[in-house]
Design brief:
266 residues, alpha+beta, GMP Synthetase, Chain A, domain 3, 3 domains, three-stranded mixed β-sheet, 7 helices, 20% strand, elongated, Lipoprotein, T3SS_SctJ, palmitate, membrane, AMP-bd_C_sf
């Protein structure tokens, strides 16, 4: 019993070469139309997922890619780069990287003065509190500053410590309980700070409205508006690729049958 073996394709034939050139042109156009550029890199998995979810929610073509160190790079369509940056900024993304007390006091071995240690402690507390307030639902971004002067001599008179908070909050999350909760949180986190000594300024912002998805009919098929060009390009590429495969198969079968016919005649 003989197995069917097809001879190698003769790609030098003019017809196949022309079809191959057309296919290559379509593939190049598809590649250029889908070109993505890095938006943010060095992200954690959680940060990347939060940002990617928000971009996809607003109909921005985005993907993520992990490097060898498991850090994530966020990629977006080059034509939507500016829109993606503005959108993420409006939601306070990516979140600021606040310092922690552990990072501030790393034990570098250097001898510092008590005043510098006091300043480092206040800075670390302000960073920790900024992170805590920013984690409140609806808060886009928050910054806490601590005014906690230190006595340099036993006879110094210093004002009582105080704190100020600037919070950028989604308008829908601004309630009557928000400011008292922030003041209570800060007052209970800093030694000797009274509730009345915590000032809070809230700036309400409106997030961009979700996009309205519209569909258009293309050849009897419903396609999202704005994606017609890509759909036509994809359909054309598939059609050309099918033609090339069909021509290659027909050429191979024809060559095989001619060779078999010559063998029988001979």
């Amino acid at each position: 019993m003989h197995s069917l073996a097809f001879p190698p394709l003769d790609c030098s034939r003019p017809r196949l070469s022309r079809l191959g050139a057309v296919l290559l042109a379509f593939a190049l156009c598809a590649f250029l139309s889908a070109c993505k550029v890095p938006l943010y890199s060095g992200l954690s998995e959680q940060e990347a997922n939060d940002m990617l979810g928000k971009l996809l929610e607003y109909d921005i073509d985005a993907t993520k890619q992990a490097d060898k160190d498991n850090y994530i790079t966020l990629l977006v369509d080059e034509a939507q780069f500016g829109q993606a940056v503005d959108l993420l900024k409006s939601f306070g993304l990516p979140r600021p990287q606040f310092e922690t007390i552990g990072k501030v006091f790393t034990g570098d071995g250097l001898v510092t003065s008590p005043v510098k240690e006091w300043a480092r402690l206040n800075f670390a507390l302000s960073q920790e509190l900024s992170k805590m307030v920013s984690s409140i639902p609806g808060v886009v971004l928050a910054e806490v500053q601590i005014a906690n002067p230190r006595k340099t001599t036993p006879f110094d008179e210093v004002p009582p410590p105080s704190a100020s908070v600037l919070a950028i909050v989604n308008r829908s999350a601004v309630t009557a309980e928000l400011v008292p909760r922030i003041r209570q949180l800060v007052a209970h986190s800093i030694e000797n700070v009274q509730y009345e000594k915590v000032g809070v300024v809230v700036l309400p912002v409106d997030p961009p409205p979700p996009p309205t998805i519209e569909f258009v009919s293309l050849g009897g098929v419903a396609i999202r508006k704005g994606g017609e060009e890509r759909a036509v390009l994809l359909a054309g590429g598939i059609a050309v690729f099918s033609l090339v495969l069909g021509a290659a198969a027909a050429l191979s079968v024809g060559t095989y049958l001619r060779s078999r016919r010559k063998e029988r005649v001979g």
